[in-house]
Amino acid sequence: MVYFGEFRGKIDKQGRTVIPAKLRSSLSGRGNGEVYITKGLEDCLFVFPEKMWKNQSSKLKELPFTKGDPRTFTRLFFSGAFQSRVDKQGRILIPSNLLEYAGIKENIVIIGAGTRIELWEEGRWRKYYESSLKTYEDISEKMMEL
Question: Residue 1: inside a domain, yes or no?
């Protein structure tokens, strides 16, 4: 599954947000609706469906723990992880420590980012989007060289 699109939402007082229906159906898939939320990059949160979480975890487990950067990354990635579940109303619970990490208080932007969903504080997303859009063409050229 490839996640795509940009959606606006809110965080309720219990720390829940509704995952848009277009993303939700593939997020829960045929499984039990479990998702994994962790610290993303650029101050967002990553949300993985269970199968993708297992794939990502397997890749990260192969990194050498004797090297500093892989050790630091895996510590931060896994220590911040939280297992949630899509409830009957299509909501997921996000713990306060992850909301704080991402600076999310109320307004949220939910984006499909290929293999994962990302949750952004609205202002941070706007700044990131506007600054990144300026280099979009240059980045695409570099990526074609890979």
Answer: no
Distances (CA, A) of 106 to 38, 65, 139: 18, 37, 32
**Residue 29: what pLDDT?**
59
User: Is 30 within a domain?
Assistant: yes
Domain count, the chain: 1
Task: Yes or no: say if 119 and 45 are a contact pair by the CB < 8 Å rule.
Answer: yes
Range of the structural domain that residue 23 is part of: 6-145
The phi, psi pair for 120, rounded to 5°, reads -125, 145
The kind and range of the H/E element at 111 are strand 107-112
Percent of the chain topping pLDDT 90: 73
Q: Which helix (H) or strand (E) holds 8?
A: strand 6-10
Degrees to nearest 5, angle at CA 30 with 28 and 36: 35
